[in-house]
Amino acid sequence: MSTINLVTPVPGPKSLAMLERRKNALPAGLAKSTEVVVDKAEGGIVWDVDGNTLLDFAGGIGMINVGHRPEQITNAIKAQVDKYIHTCSLVTTFEPYIELAEMLNRLTPGDFPKKTLLCNTGTEAVENAVMLAKYYTKRPAVICFEGAYHGRSMLTLSLTSKYSLFKKGFGSFASDVYRLPVPNLYRTPAGMSEQEYLSWCINNLEHAFIAQVEPESVAAIIIEPVLGEGGFIQMPAPFMRKIRELCDKYGIVMIADEIQSGSGRTGQLFAIEHTGVVPDVITVAKSLGAGMPISAVVGKAAIMDCTHLGGVGGTYGGSPVAAAAAIEALKILSSQEFLDRATHVGHLIQNVIDSWVSKYAYVGTTRSTGAMSIVEFAKDKNTKEPDMELPLEVLKDAVAHGIILIRAGLYSNCIRLLPPIAMTDDQLLEGLQVLEDAIQRAHEKRGK
């Protein structure tokens, strides 16, 4: 029995009216991947205001790994609201902040004393992580990587890649930011083997300390263990080990940005666990709050304690209501049952999408790290020239047929798949069939 049920076009008349209100009330620069207008959501299902039932394969850009509105979490939110909403951690002390910090200190990689700072957004978490690294090391420079997305504040936007979408028109940016290439093995340069290319990328890390910035000036190296906006590119373990080695050698703080790749999405609570590398600081957000706005910076106690009194914090950081939700979410996300389910979901998706590479001329490759999966489109399988038009066409077609999607990739030539892990196997297969049908129709239009 299918879950998707379309009673009007998507968008329908009520949705169109709401979209017109959005157009008139909200900034034009606030983009939207789809024209779905939500009425309610549960598990992996979204109902729009016109009565259509859709499957959510975007998951709020990885925000709802546990699914929409799990009862365990909504009950915790309601119970906290009935006690108090917020009294500010800069003024008072409340247990939800402390309990969540204790959980994160225990669950994050690393057998050393840790402390946690709670914030509201991923951007804030990254901003604070970098600030702490600079304060701790008394150094100005930060190394980041091509394809990275770290946020939209002035500092984090300086760290973010993909200039035309996120950065155009907003400069000048923060100084002392140095960006290095990552090993995207799908785009191994012609004439090189994957191993040669990986070795070049690893060697380039040390070369940067000669060509771009001296290591004694570098406060932090920040990296996503699996690039999110950059196209779900998993960082090879040797590459991550080299970063760890250089950080140890030169006293640099290694920051793992796990905002999209963490929270159990890849079958480990944190994606960096696949590499065996332990960072000094981890940033967490998105699915940590199960839809509530909360983020965290978790790191070595010496780094987290380094600032003067009052050097960190914010009015809404560690909101008790958001913390209550995150505590229950983290109980789910860290359970072996959930992590095993995420691995299963990833295998199911990959087993389906793998066949698309040979079946469809413009599907260049597919990738999965656990249930963090992507389909990358190319105009030619040999040249691998990114196709930026076809995925947008496919996305619009698939949404019109009942699944919610969003693109990704440095060239916006990918469709990312981040369905809630709560989605059933039947729902996953139903949604993937809708996506494949849209891919097939796009190929047929091109005579392929």
TrEMBL record:
Coiled coil: none annotated. Belongs to the class-III pyridoxal-phosphate-dependent aminotransferase family. Its cofactor is pyridoxal 5'-phosphate. Keywords: Aminotransferase, Pyridoxal phosphate, Transferase. InterPro entries: Aminotrans_3, Class-III_PLP-dep_AT, PyrdxlP-dep_Trfase, PyrdxlP-dep_Trfase_major, PyrdxlP-dep_Trfase_small. One of its GO terms (molecular function) is transaminase activity. It comes from Panacibacter microcysteis. This is Aspartate aminotransferase family protein. The keyword Protein biosynthesis does not apply. The keyword Transferase applies.
